[in-house]
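Q: I'm teaching a short session on how sequence maps to structure, and I want students to see two examples side by side rather than one. Could you give me a first protein with its sequence written out and its structure tokens following it? Keep the formatting plain so it prints cleanly on a handout.
A: Of course. Example one:
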Amino acid sequence: MAAMSNVNTGELLDFQDYSPEHNRSARIDVEAVHTNQYNNSNTSYDYVEPKPVVEDDPPPKSGNHNFWTIEYYQKYFDVHTDEVVERIISSVLPQKVSRNYFDERIKGKPDLYGPIWVSVTLIFTIAVSGNIASYLQNANKAIHWKYDFHLMSYAATAISCYVWLVPLALWAALKWTITPDVDQIETQASASPTMMSLFCLYGYSLSIYIPVAILWTIQVSWLQWLLVLLGAFVSGAVLIFWLLPALRKSKYFIILVGCILALHFLLAAGFMLYFFHVPETEPEVIIATTIKP
């Protein structure tokens, strides 16, 4: 109260005029004080601009599915048409691709779409061509020809057993007969083909028999046997050509190579003899007998 009594009341009631220059100076002083405070704060620590937050990609889903589920086999049907066509051509003409084609393409990414498609196409081709061959054989005979629907079931049984059982037996033989060295234990897993890769390889190896089955309808014995040898040699050569690195590591190299070629020859010969070939028979000799009274 003592301080207020010393103040002149006239000064309190008098209004003072402020010029624009006065306001400007006051605003500059405030900005200067704010800038000095900001500079002083920067001297104590460095200002780091925050980086934008990038969300990480979601972790990939686990591909370990049960063997009996459909999801387990989805990866074996994830194949493009160009890859299927390339594998069919390479199974007939292995020289079109490099020697490491099996390790780089089929062994690393086997598929079941192509082998199943080739097997089903071969089944229908053999069934239809076999009936055409039967019709041509009986065209000049006085019999009523009928379409044999059982040929399809016989062809399906033979092809399915060959495509699935023979690769399984070969996989077991390679697994039990390959004797790796101590220094090659780590590389042995890559040298031995997997079961799915053998299924894929054997399925594509039957591609040569689709055009051969159509040509088997020609009823010329020497031509049919020539096609048997041609189909068995080409198809067997593809298997030996791609499996040679693994077969060389086996103790029974010669036996396995002989079995692969022999089974291919038996398959081709069985197709030709059962579905297309008619053995040449000698004309029946009718002996006329006379009975004297």
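Q: Perfect. Now a second example for contrast.
A: Example two:
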Amino acid sequence: MAPEFQKNTMYVSTELESGDVQKNFDDDGREKRTGTLLTASAHIITAVIGSGVLSLAWAIAQLGWVAGPAVLFAFSFITYFTSTLLADCYRSPGPISGKRNYTYMDVVRSHLGGVKVTLCGLAQYANLVGVTIGYTITASISMVAVKRSNCFHKHGHEASCSISSYPYMIIFAVIQIVLSQIPNFHKLSWLSILAAVMSFTYASIGLGLSIAKAAGVGHHVKTSLTGTTVGVDVSGSEKIWKSFQAIGDIAFAYAYSTVLIEIQDTLRSQPPESKVMKRASLAGVSTTTLFYILCGTIGYAAFGNDAPGNFLTGFGFYEPFWLIDFANVCIAVHLVGAYQVFCQPLYGFVEARCNERWSDSKFITSEYAVQVPCCGVYNVNLFRLVWRTAYVVVTAVIAMIFPFFNDFLGLIGAASFYPLTVYFPIEMHIAQRKIPKYSFTWVWLKILSWTCLVVSLVAAAGSIQGLVTSLKHYKPFSTQQ
């Protein structure tokens, strides 16, 4: 029997023969998905490896040679494990032949229900909004870094080279307005692959420069098993707060659960989506962990306890300036793609809800075919055009008014890491598999969940302290020094 078709902004009801349905549509009546292991891995790498990979040398410097790598490996395991649990929940009640759930909220609704659905939505979409604002700021910092690098090369390392980031935020926003007109996640594969290549490129450049610096003649920096030294590099309280922040940076650097279900919803039906997603998660997390360990440890060896927050935009390196420029351009290009990976689920959520609420509105539901030179026919939806443009503009304005928003981002990440990456996947796994209460499996899953809650609270405390410190030195509309 042919599946039912639902009318919304992306899918239109059509009368088709049974054979055509099987050929062009999936079992839920939606356009046949074409995602593969490669595209899913690219989406994951784009979401996970951000410019934060270059700040891991700072994180290792706070924790030291023992705790730093140990925390990295611990969170890579936790992230991979919980992502496999979440992948099995894409379909319900069974992971192979159950009903599809298109969003994280749908998954929670199918397995847990109740007020937990609302809590999931608040955590997920607040995180997505925060990430897109943070990416606007971070991308502009990378663009400014290119200008500053050229300035230092021309006028010397002692030059002030003060440059405003606001014009670059506007440029980034204009690019995002154009890319945001891509209808949905299914059309983003090429952008994620490009962004993943960029992330490998700038991480490799940072790694190569660190190796060259560490191996340089006369290179001597201070490192230790416990990281920065109390009374020498930092005070006792600073050591605690910065260690908390470092743990938080590492934990949240791995979090991609906010978009995992949306990524899985792009995959072909065969082989089973859960199996492909687990392999993609393994490939993505393994790749990012390798880069994280290399960049973190070798970066620490190169800069020691004085490691900068980001040695490409924070100018841990000055020369060769052209290579620094190229690396920062790669960061900006990567963040262009990463912004889309994180905002597309939000776009889809708002548009689906509006379509349900005002299904008779032509402004919301109608598509208009427009011939685009060199690109063929593009279907324009007026609501999508106006709403997505407005969203990008608002995030850019917030980024300009509050350029210290990255400090808020750590707090938002602290609030969303535990529920989205740990709590909900574990609770849904227990419900799906009907694991008996107080059984061995139930107990150790609960121990893992509570341990991660403590870590998340600790990281939140560190983020709040960092935010308070940033506010003390905040000067509205100031240029970068």
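Q: What should students look for in example two?
A: Point them to this: The mean pLDDT is 82. Also worth mentioning: The radius of gyration is 23 Å.
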